[in-house]
Amino acid sequence: MIDPRTSVINERLAKTRQIIAVSSGKGGVGKSMVATALALSLIKEGCRVGLFDLDFTGPSTHIILGVPKNAQPKEDKGLVPPTVEGLEYMSLVYFVGDNPAPFRGADVSNALIELLSVTQWGELDFLIIDMPPGIGDAVLDLIRLVKRIEFLIITTPSLLAFEVVKKQLALLCELKMPIVGVVENMKMNNSDAIKCESTKLGLKYLGAIAFDSEVEASIGNPAKLLSTAIGKSMDKIKKAVAGTKGDSKCHLKQ
Amino acid sequence: MHEWALAEAILASANQIAQKEHLKTVSEVTIRVGELQQVEPPILRFALKQLCEGIFKDTKFRILKAKSTLKCRVCGTTWKYNPKKLDKATAEAIHFVPEVAHTYIKCPKCGSPDFEIASGRGVWIEDIKGVKAV
Fold this sequence. Notes:
The structure holds two protein chains of two kinds.
Chain A: H1 9-12, E1 16-23, H2 31-44, E2 49-53, H3 61-65, E3 74-75, E4 79-80, E5 83-84, E6 87-91, H4 93-96, H5 105-118, E7 124-130, H6 137-145, E8 149-155, H7 159-174, E9 179-187, H8 193-200, E10 205-210, H9 214-217, H10 222-226, H11 229-232, H12 234-243
Parallel strand pairs in A: 1-7, 1-8, 2-6, 2-7, 8-9, 9-10
Antiparallel strand pairs in A: 3-4, 5-6
Helix pairs in contact in A: 2-12
Chain B: H1 2-20, E1 23-34, H2 41-51, E2 60-66, E3 69-72, E4 78-80, H3 88-96, H4 101-104, E5 115-119, E6 123-132
Parallel strand pairs in B: 1-2
Antiparallel strand pairs in B: 1-6, 3-4, 3-5
Helix pairs in contact in B: 1-2
């Protein structure tokens, strides 16, 4: 018995120049907000961008983006994601709506493989993947199946968050996975602890995003999201993301 | 046509197996399609025929169905998947991503969505026959 699906995954992503998994060992640190803001911000630069919500049990990028309820992928030799706010946008919500998706590990793997093997992305400069928290099935499957994956790590200033994130970093470093850098989200103090710790680990510290109470009000309003502290902090992150490949076609402002 | 993407995957995978087994031609590929995903064999066969070339030029594609069995992890009840009980939109969602069955189907005995797809989930290659290169 051979599962044929995994053999086409990298072919499906062949026209995508960079694949960035926005990830964190810890939940609630703002991965989805940062992933969405990064994707929208790259669109503003003239890049072709896809956003893939892989957080099957807790998807939220569709809410942040305000994806219309009637948006659906089109069937054409697979599934072609609809364009939302200029992004090719894929999520399990097309298939489950607002209902819960109580998946166990094997189900997460299977659904992830299914969507990776049937989604027909166009030519993309960047595919941004909003990851579920932790170092479970989704992270391990992407490492196993997607050859050119790079990780952008999100943490908060909390020691509690960063201690968990450090476990993820240790795993990624051990597996020699490319890490674009570490972003410190929701910063409310002047401590440079996360910056020091990141640098000590040999990782790029891509700056702090100040806690901004306006972020909540931007949910469902992508233009507003880009005017919050998260949106305004994207410049350094975009440059770091694009800087990992020397042949950026969308000419990010340096 | 979602079956097209699955046909591409089947051929890519069969090609990898053929290379590993040093097959110069492939005479037959047996494919099993699970009931849960509701893949249409005629559409899949059409896509395979449109896509096949090279070592698959004269390949016979056998497409066999597999019954889908679900087993509740809470109370142990085993039951057969019955697509006729679902509306069109739900059946289509399960067709694209079979795991979303956990969203729409519950154990008939205890009502839990925590069940195992014990058999007949998706599409897999069961057997490949061909002629080895000498």
